[in-house]
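Thread title: Can someone regenerate the structure for this chain?

I was given the following input by a collaborator and told the matching structure tokens would be attached. They weren't. Posting the sequence so someone can regenerate them.
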Amino acid sequence: RVKRGWVWNQFFVVEEYTGTEPLYVGKIHSDSDEGDGSIKYTISGEGAGTIFLIDEITGDIHATERLDREQKTFYTLRAQARDRQTDQLLEPESEFIIKVQDINDSEPRFLEGPYIGSVAELSPIGTSVMQVMASDADDPTYGSSARVAYSVLEGEQHFTVDSKTGVIRTAVADLDRETQDRYEVVIRATDMAGQLGGLSGSTTVTIVVTDVNDNPPRFPQKMYQFSIVETAPVGTAIGRVKAEDSDVGENTDMMYRVKDEEGVEMFKVTTDSNTQEAVITVQKPLDYESKKVHTVVVEALNKFVDPRFVDLGTFRDQTIVRVSVLDVDEPPEFRPPSNLMEVQEDADIGSVVGMVTALDPDTANHPVRYAIDRSTDAERIFDIDANTGAIVTGKVLDRETAGWHNITVLAMEADNHSQVSRTSLRIRILDVNDNPPELATPYEAAVCEDAKPGQLIQTISVVDRDEPQSSHRFYFTLAPEANSNHYFSLLDIKDNTAAVHTQRMGFNRQEQDVYLLPILVVDSGPPALSSTGTLTIRVCGCDSNGAIQSCNSTAYVMSATLSPGALIALLVCILILVVLVLLILTLKRHHKSHLTSEDDEDMRDNVIKYNDEGGGEQDTEAYDMSALRSLYDFSEIKGSDGVGPGEGGLSGNSASELHALPQWVQSPDLDFSVFRDYICKKVEQADEDLSVPPYDSFQTYAFEGSDSPVPSLSSINTWSSGSEQDFSYLGAWGPRFRQLAALY
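Best answer:
Regenerated them for you:
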């Protein structure tokens, strides 16, 4: 058998066909087709029946629509050959492709715009700025439709572009940001490799020229003038100057400094980092009388200098600043400024200590007045002459009390006391020998009964409140009243101390247990002053090694006295003991009165209580009524009926007396009025007696009153169960009868 198969050529269709008739694409054919029309050709797939139509008999394929390769480059379809009579496949279904053939119908496009680049000013020729790129939708594999070439349409005087890569470069070396800081360059892209007839597209590239430090700072003026008052404190700002710089950013950062020596001493220049201005401030106090005008040379220079442009010139500039000092009315000034004076402590009142001088800096020989700030000399120890400034003593001085005095002296204009200046003055009080030396402490020494002659007992020293210019020198000797002393000797050691030694052998405590040794101490002056101190020596018993065992505390010569501190302590202890005793007595009395009040209150209440229930009114056997009846003597009460309080009956004090009553004998004809009278008299006596406290008294009387006004509530004696009796009055008896009222 001969194998059957499809017969067709490669199918192509040209894009963008503009004819009026369908465009012939190609023909499919089966080798079994004998041309008798018995075979029917059909296609299916992309665009079948819409874009592409087939002649069922001949197999010719036509395109009915305009195609665009940039939208779709090929179409995939399937072909079938069927028997027209039976509609059976004569050939297996076969797939074929119709390619859209490209034409140059798409221009290059810059898809990444807008383009913004930058280049530093003064860059050399050929410096790369940036790269642009255009894309062409045409088929790059077919012809030159997609080959793009670049060129500069506008801005070719300053920039160039590589025709193949699209890299933009500088064309000149003198780009100056200060002249022009932005360029708009138009770049064109042409396909067909730039040949004639190719399509083209363009874009605008913005190129920013960045700054370099190629401009030095410049002061707009060569001289500035400022003025300031002479009393302006140090640190006061005088004015501001600024050097201009055509650069931008950190290339305009400035540093300012004072160049001349005079200006450096009097003024200071700092840089304001926000405004890049030079701030001129006072560095030293100004004085109109000394100098009225100051000239300062201020220099400005860039903080960051580019070494590539050093050859362009010096990057600094200078200007002159004239500062005029304005005169103001100033307070007097103290001259000279010495603040230390000295005076002897024995100086008489009114003695001159020293003199202060103040001058008015504004007017020569202008009168000045002086005074002392009394807040620094409240005790008025010193005075000052208001006209001359002489400081004199106002009170007696004592170096030992206050060795230094710090006072404040005021100086003011005679005709304007608001202009005041102050100065601190230190006055030192010089010492004179006006205090005698004294023993350092109240010395007490001990000597053994078996002490030997020449034995050291005590070493003594002295104190002197004076402060001589040279070192202290003290002399020791026994006082004249100690000439009769044959027991002890005093040796001056020549180092401002002295030693006391025994002069005899053996002492007896029984004969004398305390010795008082007066010692005379003299200083070196001038003038020489002396005082007498007493050394107390006690005779003690010692062991064989000389250690003291016991001393008799009874003084032989000196009377036993207590120090003021000991007396105060003793008095405080006694006072505390007295307070404690009084406190204890007060607490005991309070406790006793509390118990007494409780006992009285208990005796006022005599309530006898039974917690069991009896058998009713006729039951006389359930209780022992004697306890109740024995409280009162009814016979006495009845016999005293009608007796007044002054007749020995129920007297004023009968309220506190209880009489035993005889055994109660029930009598059918007992008159209860006697009890009523008795109670009324008791109430009347209690009301009239103002000395009786308002205590409540509860008394129990062993008698029964009259019958109850309320009839019996029992239902036993009711004539019938259907009684018509009205019990509504029970509701008015109160809450205690509420339940009973509800039952009835």
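The CA atoms of residues 596 and 602 lie 10 Å apart.
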